[in-house]
Design brief:
single chain; alpha/beta; TIM Barrel; 3 domains; 8-stranded parallel barrel; 4-stranded mixed β-sheet; about 35% helix
């Protein structure tokens, strides 16, 4: 093994500013890109600290150098700052201040969990997608606990651009229905918006406290978003981009813990390192969080690069903490949340995307009935409860009867996701839904008349489709729009997770496989270039282009 010195100044002159850090435990691979003669190359070093056992060096087949006491010997101060920001050192959790005693008596840990009804099935906080109407629908079909949409604390408390929209659309206190124990929608059942957790994103402890105090009498806890991975979170320094500043995360949570009347909780993403993920969770617990939700994906796993969440990290975090832990990731079928509970040992399971495409995901009976579709000999025609038309009508009923206005973007987004399987067949109805509007005149039903008309038309089409027995059989060649579930690989999976569902049923959504763009070859003759119209004939459509103009994918992956 050859231990090399740091790059010389002459070498550094030829390097670009591009740096990539690959974290491995308490060490990090530092890759510095360089341009020489127009050809991109790079040099890779292993950055470690003097207290790391030297035996680790013999296991690394790369050029390495030791970084004593984390001092500057790599390149410029700017580069060192980036290494430290992304780097591998796990902060000492015991070095953080003591949690402190709250100014108000409130429930902690498992006492809070029991007061919430010991929830197992939880609907995630989703920007503009977990509004009051949706929360009511999900409660009717098995959700034990729901979160509000993610609310920007700064916008919520400051009187400025966007404040009215956020206060009215994300947590409306003027009507009195949000956070109410009883909501009368003038039907046979009595609905409720409790138990409820309100989620904020923030990077200023005082502003977060002000926003939380404004809603503390209308909820059971306040949650801090530490998981949003999108560019807007990066620009605003909130969500998953607080993972680079543990001190700030501690102060945000601890400020709420000490001063709020209700408990504080937190939802976060993991690191590549299990050890660092555990340490991060322990710090959040030490700061005063009484429940944590672990999203088993890293900050970089988003969009087409989302991939599968790591349940083993969730299990490790659960085993390391003394407070309730919710698991989040890979929950698409009813059997998934049951398997997740069993594998991780977590106290509850949270679903975001799976819930949006199938709000009956958590229903104890309807969820099990989905397995009927796995049996070719079963009478599929008798399986009607999950018919998406029924759910679409019920959601519209709730929107029409609520006094609290439902944002147009939330309504349109939910309708596109509920009816997605049918719209992949009846494509001519997609622009009909895309052009539907709400109206402020008249009663609630009059306001949503265009959406109701769309559902009625779709209902006629699906009734005709469902009358054809051939539609219940998995085709020998899957339809153009269909993407096979990636985790259904053996007979045991197929016993509870059907590999084909007719298009008039609610069903999970699977992302098409991600094929990174290939570098352009300037030598390629134009005549040899593939025909754009024919090259992707068999590729499934991208979800980001599905005529959902008001709903972006970033809104559901936080």
């Amino acid at each position: 093994m050859r231990i090399s010195p740091p790059p010389t100044l002459d070498e550094e002159k030829n390097f670009s500013t591009h740096i990539e850090v690959e974290k491995i435990g308490t060490a990090a691979f530092l890759t510095i890109g360089k341009l020489r003669g127009g050809v991109p190359t790079c040099k890779t070093y292993l950055v470690v600290h003097t207290y790391i056992p030297t035996t680790i060096l013999g296991l690394v087949p790369r050029r390495v150098f030791v970084l004593p006491r984390a001092s500057y010997i790599v390149a410029s101060h700017q580069r060192l700052a980036q290494v430290r920001r992304m780097g591998s050192v796990i902060p000492d959790v015991d070095a953080f201040p003591e949690t402190g005693t709250p100014h108000h008596h409130k429930l902690e840990g498992y006492d809070l969990y029991k007061s919430l009804g010991s929830p197992k099935c939880i609907v995630a906080p989703m920007v503009d997608q977990s509004e009051l109407a949706w929360r009511i629908l999900c409660r009717r079909y098995g959700a034990d606990l729901v979160y509000t949409p993610m609310i920007n604390a700064k916008i919520y408390v400051q009187q400025g651009r966007g404040t009215h929209r956020v206060r009215e659309g994300f947590f409306n206190q003027d009507v009195g229905e949000e956070g109410a124990h009883t909501i009368d929608l003038c039907d046979e059942r009595k609905d409720s918006d409790r138990p409820l957790i309100v989620q904020f994103c923030a990077n200023d402890p005082d502003m977060l406290l002000e926003a939380a105090q404004a809603v503390q009498d209308k909820c059971d806890a306040v949650d801090l978003n530490l998981g949003c991975p999108q560019q807007i979170a990066k620009r605003g320094k909130f969500g998953a981009f607080l993972m680079d500043d543990w001190d700030l995360v501690f102060r945000l949570i601890n400020t709420l813990h000490l001063n709020l009347k209700v408990p504080v909780t937190a939802k976060f993403r993991v690191y590549d390192s299990v050890e660092k993920s555990i340490a991060y969770a322990r710090m959040i617990q030490r700061a005063g969080a009484q429940i944590v939700t672990v999203h088993g994906r890293t900050r970089e796993m988003k969009g087409h690069k989302t991939g599968l969440a790591d349940w083993s990290i969730m299990r490790a975090v659960k085993e390391a903490l003394a407070i309730p832990v919710f698991a989040n990731g890979n929950i698409l079928y009813a059997q998934d949340w049951r398997d997740c509970l069993a594998y991780t040992g977590c106290d509850g399971v949270m679903s975001a995307e799976g819930n949006l495409y199938n709000p009956t995901l958590f229903h104890r009976e309807l969820g099990r009935d989905l397995s009927v579709l796995c049996d070719p000999a079963a009478d599929h025609a008798q399986f009607e409860p999950m018919h998406l038309i029924r759910i679409a009508h019920e959601y519209l009923d709730i929107v029409a009867r609520l006094k609290t206005p439902t944002s147009h973007s939330a309504l349109k987004g939910h309708m596109f996701k509920i009816t997605r399987p049918a719209l992949c067949i009846h494509t001519d109805l997609r622009p009909v839904l895309g052009n539907a509007h709400t109206y402020d005149d008249g009663d609630g039903e009059h306001q949503i008349r265009e959406y109701r008309a769309f559902v009625h038309e779709l209902e006629k089409r699906l009734e005709a489709d469902a009358s054809q027995p051939s539609y219940y059989t998995r085709p020998s060649e899957l339809p153009h729009h269909y993407v096979a579930p990636p985790h259904i690989q053996d007979a045991s999976d197929r016993a509870t997770r059907p590999d084909y569902i007719p298009h008039w049923y609610l069903q999970p959504y699977f992302r098409p496989p991600y094929n990174p763009p290939q570098p352009k070859d300037n030598k390629t003759d134009a005549s040899s270039a593939p025909n754009k119209e024919s090259s992707n004939v068999h590729d499934p459509p991208s979800p980001s282009t599905e005529a959902e103009p008001s709903v972006k994918r970033m809104k559901i992956e936080s």
